[in-house]
Amino acid sequence: MQESPPPALQGETTSGVLRAIAVALEPDPQAAARARRTALDTLTSWGLHSLADDLTLIVSELVANAAQHGEGTIVMVLRQRGDVVLVEVADASPGLPVTCVQSDESESGRGLALVEALSDDWGCRARARRSGKWVWCSRSLSSRAAAHVGRPASLEAVP
Q1: Shortest CA distance to 133 belongs to which of 82, 61, 62, 83?
Q2: pTM for the complete prediction?
Q3: Using CA atoms, how far apart are residues 52 and 36, in angstroms rounded to an integer?
């Protein structure tokens, strides 16, 4: 993966971000669970019920990757401006995330594929003032990014 900056949230200024939360997490086995709870509570309080499940799963995968493969304290940021929600997760490791092709029997290695499927765009960039990287994804409130995921088949298709 090559470095890429997150999309600018339209009209963003220091005071222009409508909603934002940042949480520091220790890189332990419970980091992803704490991040999930925080993300779900935050997104629900922002009234983003339609995106809460997908974005909470994305947060969980990115934080789990940072805890397993990264270094140092993990920082999770959620920001919303208008129609776009941006999820960012930072750790102190300079290593870029790698999407893996896993066999059907593999029990891990699908996290970034889920992030890609559930977001409109994603990438990573170096941290500006510290060592390490930010892995980010964006999702529009009107997105069809995950329209095909988890939808039951039509009964008309059943013989």
Answers
A1: 62
A2: 0.77
A3: 10
